[in-house]
Amino acid sequence: MTLAEGPELWSGANPGSQQVQEASPADQDSQPVLEQKAREDDTEALAKEAQNPVANLISLPIQWNATPGTQWAPRELDPSARANRTLNVWNVQPVVPFRLNNDFFLITRTIVPVIQRPLAGSTDIIGIGDINPTVFLVPRTSSRFQFGIGPTVVIPSATDVQLSSQRWSAGPAAVAVYTRGPLVAGMLANNIWSFAGEGGREVDSMLIQPFISYNLANGWYITSSPVITADWTARDGRGWTVPIGGGIGRIFKLGSQPFNASLQGFWNVARPEVLGDTLLGPVTIRLQIQALFPTGG
Question: What's the whole-number mean pLDDT along residues 162-189?
């Protein structure tokens, strides 16, 4: 396999070919056209590609999620526990596309979490959590609609057992994206089940991430991408986390290097219960900086 290249791999044509140059206005949001424009330093096209989880674009997002008002343990285990701590999670998420042939390519997305979790008293534990690689098989199309399917795996690689499920887990993942005018919208989903490992407990969990971005002038955009999770092992359906909210973002450059930055805030309208207590704080703030490397650029 080789790193995926530009829109010529979609159509069999070279960059700047007659096929792309003669694209009608109705085709300006097709993936081949957006890829070529992103490589040519078009800010609007680069924003749309950055907002597409399965775009033909190498990127390195670093995401910080802070949840103040978190309680370290249920009061049944620690009567002195209060909702006055902050859970911090930094996700390093490299995304790399690989060309398979003229009909398909692979998008690899790997989440490496660094977690700062409150413990008893005023102490915290910080370390690397379980690594989560996902591979999407994405058909090559000239459409505004894109989709990908593939496996996702959770590796019990944490530096401390308190930051780990201690189980190998895996399951199916899927993503769908639609681009039209200033709008980029879609959904990513997966479900994983534990299948090996000792310690911890059984894993059966779902993740759904709907996302929508509305692009404005000068690289600015409005966005919302809440991460909804469900722990199917929780009793009485009390394992849901459902945030609502959104924020703003912008494409910008430092020198010749393009970046994508966004800031979002979410209210956690549903939070999982543990022994009768909701441990997760009511609000989560997310800041993300993403370095962009248009393939072939």
Answer: 96
